[in-house]
């Protein structure tokens, strides 16, 4: 099976930079995704990494190291609206499904 | 374009009853997946349908079933409801696997079993 580890909670202040780490154990790794979920809302797709390296989308960046089974989500210029839960999820070859981590609750304070 | 639509948004059922949840994916998306979200277990995969065929299934009892229609709309059914089935049930769609497009999730159906 697959397993993912990410911190349960991270706190930061507005304007700061925060990094949410994700380590995974899986066979047949295909890609790592990140999703954001506000309380009571639907998960929203943020980024996807299939190859090693950094993917940048506006204030958000995601990094993957396949050899280390590790990835992270980097959020820059934090805003209050970034307070939410962030989930990493792995997709394995041949299966169109996602296995999610338990999620990291990000609290952004003024 | 319209997002993923799930109905109903909220549902209260009694133990032993059955329930059917509905999901309309984004137009053109043929892959539809269902997830259960609970505070204790997080997001857990239930099943995935593609072109009316169940392509993958998660580790849930046979009381959980689903289907997909020719227009890609999907339904999931839970029979003989248990208290532990109380959860947010999320439907997600995307074009297909192998494309680095993320899933688009619906707002979910919050099921409470009493």
What do these coordinates show?
- The complex is a heterodimer of chains A (110) and B (114).
- Chain A has 110 residues and is mostly beta strands.
- Helices cover 0% and strands 59% of the residues of chain A.
- In chain A, the strands form 2 sheets. In chain A, strands 2, 4, 5, 9, 10 and 11 form a 6-stranded mixed β-sheet that branches. A 5-stranded antiparallel β-sheet of chain A has the order 1-3-8-7-6, with no helix packed on it.
- Chain B is mostly beta strands and 114 residues long.
- Chain B has strands at residues 5-7, 10-13, 19-24, 31-38, 42-50, 53-57, 64-68, 74-78, 87-94, 104-105, 109-113.
- In chain B, strands 2, 4, 5, 6, 9, 10 and 11 form a 7-stranded mixed β-sheet that branches.
- In chain B, a hairpin with a 3-residue loop joins strand 4 and strand 5 (42-50).
- The radius of gyration of chain B is 13 Å and the shape is globular.
- In chain B, 33% of the residues are buried.
- The mean pLDDT of chain B is 93.
- The interface between A and B is medium-sized, with 24 and 26 residues.
Could you provide a short overview of the structure?
By secondary structure, chain A is mostly beta strands. Chain A has strands at 3-5, 9-13, 18-25, 29-37, 44-49, 53-57, 60-65, 70-75, 84-92, 99-100, 104-109.
Features:
A: 110 residues, mainly beta, six-stranded mixed β-sheet, five-stranded antiparallel β-sheet, 11 strands, globular, B: 114 residues, seven-stranded mixed β-sheet, four-stranded antiparallel β-sheet, 53% strand
Please name the two chains that share the biggest interface, counting residues whose Cβ lies under 8 Å from a Cβ on the partner chain.
A-B, 24 and 26 residues
The pLDDT mean of chain A sits at 94
Please estimate the helix content of chain B.
Answer: under 10%
Give the number of helices of chain B. 0
Query: Can you tell me the residue ranges of chain A where pLDDT is under 50 for at least 5 consecutive residues?
Result: none
C-alpha geometry of chain B: globular
- Give the SSE string of chain A: EEEEEEEEEEE
Helix-strand pattern of chain B = EEEEEEEEEEE
Report the portion of residues of chain A in β strands.
Answer: over 45%
**Helix content estimate of chain A:** under 10%
| Sequence stretches where pLDDT stays below 50 over 5 or more residues of chain B | none
Q: What oligomerization state is this entry in? A: heterodimer
Distance between the termini of chain B: 37 Å
Strand segment tally of chain B: 11
Our estimate of the beta-strand percent of chain B is over 45%
Average pLDDT reading of chain B: 93
How would you characterize the largest beta sheet of chain A?
6 strands, mixed
Structural class by secondary-structure content of chain A? mainly beta
Please summarize the sheet with the most strands of chain B. 7 strands, mixed
Our measurement of the CA-to-CA distance between the termini of chain A, rounded to an integer number of angstroms, reads 41 Å
Q: Cα-atom Rg of chain B, whole angstroms?
A: 13 Å
């Amino acid at each position: 099976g697959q397993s993912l580890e990410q911190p349960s909670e991270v706190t930061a202040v507005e304007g700061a930079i925060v990094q949410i780490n994700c380590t995974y154990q899986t066979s047949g790794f295909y890609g790592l995704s990140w999703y954001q979920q506000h309380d009571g809302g639907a998960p929203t797709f943020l980024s996807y990494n299939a190859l090693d390296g950094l993917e940048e989308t506006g204030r958000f960046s995601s990094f993957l190291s396949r050899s280390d089974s590790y990835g992270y989500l980097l959020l820059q210029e934090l805003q209050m609206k970034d307070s939410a839960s962030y989930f990493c999820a792995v997709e394995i070859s041949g299966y169109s499904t996602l296995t999610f981590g338990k999620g990291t609750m990000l609290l952004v304070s003024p | 374009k319209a997002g993923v639509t799930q109905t109903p948004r909220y549902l209260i059922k009694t133990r032993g009853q059955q329930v059917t949840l509905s999901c309309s994916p984004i137009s053109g998306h043929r892959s539809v997946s269902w997830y259960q979200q609970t505070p204790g277990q997080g997001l857990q995969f239930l099943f995935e349908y593609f072109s009316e065929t169940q392509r993958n299934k998660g580790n849930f009892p046979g009381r959980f079933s689903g289907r997909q229609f020719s227009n890609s709309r999907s339904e999931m059914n839970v029979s003989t409801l248990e208290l532990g089935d109380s959860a947010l049930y999320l439907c997600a769609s995307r074009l297909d696997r192998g494309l680095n497009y993320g899933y688009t999730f619906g707002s979910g159906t919050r099921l409470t079993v009493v």
